[in-house]
Design brief:
This is BCE-2095-like N-terminal domain-containing protein. This protein is an alpha/beta fold and 313 residues long. The chain has two domains: 3-109, Serine Threonine Protein Phosphatase 5, Tetratricopeptide repeat (Alpha Horseshoe); 117-307, Alpha/Beta hydrolase fold, catalytic domain (Rossmann fold, 3-Layer(aba) Sandwich), CATH 3.40.50.1820. The protein contains 14 helices and seven strands. It has a seven-stranded mixed beta sheet, with helices on both faces. It is globular.
Length: 313
């Protein structure tokens, strides 16, 4: 098990404790894990601070954040200001100063984009699939999740968001910044790759950004999209832009877990909005699947790419 796996397993366990009101146990678990997971020091401090704050210990919560900051940690402003769990901490002296100091670090870190990751198939490629990672993930995760595209004869490219909430947590909250990241990364791809038929894909927040990219029609000229568990709602769909995409012949595939309580209802409403504009993505609900990739996704992806993504009315 990698450190990342350990971190994710820990957060799953702590979230369960949080949901059951067992906040002191969660704090103890997080603090015990900090020496073993130094790369996630800022994330763990934020988690501990939330647990401390909701259990009536705001001074300890602020001290937890300040200690992590003093050893190099940081958080984007939105993580500290928009988190309701930290409401009692936000009233304390020193909190506003910490927010500004931390956000300055976050801004500096966001100016250091990582080049896109690229993998070619063994033979001549038939297309390029550009994958966008989900929240809390990175380009390496996307390369692993979408690796079957290479088997299907596609060049696989993973683009990483520059938007970081913490040193390790990336996502796509601002679509304009996401478009900037994608445009800059796409421009660095080899010219032969840029000329290939383009499929854009993503998971969760990355799927939302990929769908917006496909609808906009640039950079490149995406002909279809594949969205797994898209964190998208009807408010994210511009009817005029979607109608123009329909005229271009854009197709897509939306794969949702039937038990995905995180995004299912909003994503279904977004699909309805797309269909009302003339874009008719194929929709697949996977029984028993939550907010995750299905275990047979490699086979599903190869089949999608081999058959193309049909338009469903």
């Amino acid at each position: 098990m990698t450190d990342r796996d350990r971190y994710r397993a820990l957060t799953d366990e702590v979230v369960e404790l949080y949901l059951h009101g067992r906040h002191p146990e969660g704090v103890a678990l997080v603090r015990a894990a900090m020496p073993q997971l130094p790369a996630w020091r800022a994330d763990l401090a934020h988690l501990a601070a939330c647990l401390l704050a909701v259990s009536g210990r705001p001074d300890e919560a602020l001290a937890e954040l300040r200690t992590a900051f003093d050893v190099g940690g940081w958080w984007h402003r939105r993580i500290l200001v928009d988190d309701e769990d930290l409401a009692s901490v936000q009233e304390l002296d020193g909190f506003a100063e910490l927010v500004e100091e931390s956000h300055a670090r976050a801004v500096r870190a966001s100016t250091e984009p990582r080049p896109p990751v690229l993998r070619r198939p063994a033979g001549p490629p038939i297309g390029v699939l550009v994958a966008l990672h989900g929240a809390g993930q990175d380009a390496d995760d996307a390369m692993q999740q979408w690796q079957a595209a290479v088997d299907a004869g596609y060049v696989l490219v993973a683009i990483e968001s520059s938007q970081r909430h913490t040193p390790t947590y990336r996502s796509w909250p601002d679509p304009a910044v996401g478009t900037r990241d994608i445009t800059a990364a796409f421009a660095t791809l080899p010219s032969d790759v840029q000329r290939l038929p383009l499929v854009v894909a993503g998971f969760s927040a990355g799927a939302r950004q990929a769908m917006r990219w496909a609808l906009a029609g640039w950079p490149g000229e995406p002909g279809r999209f594949i969205a797994v568990g898209p964190a998208i709602g009807p408010d994210h769909v511009d009817h005029r832009i979607a109608a123009a995409a329909a005229q271009r012949g854009l197709t897509g595939h939306v794969l949702l877990g039937a038990t995905d309580d995180d995004v299912r209802e909003e994503a279904l409403a977004a699909v309805d909005e797309l269909r009302s504009a003339g874009v008719a993505p194929q929709l697949e609900l996977v029984p028993g699947l939550g907010h995750a990739f299905p275990i047979d996704f490699d086979d599903r992806l190869r089949s999608m790419l081999a058959a193309g993504v049909p338009t469903v009315a």
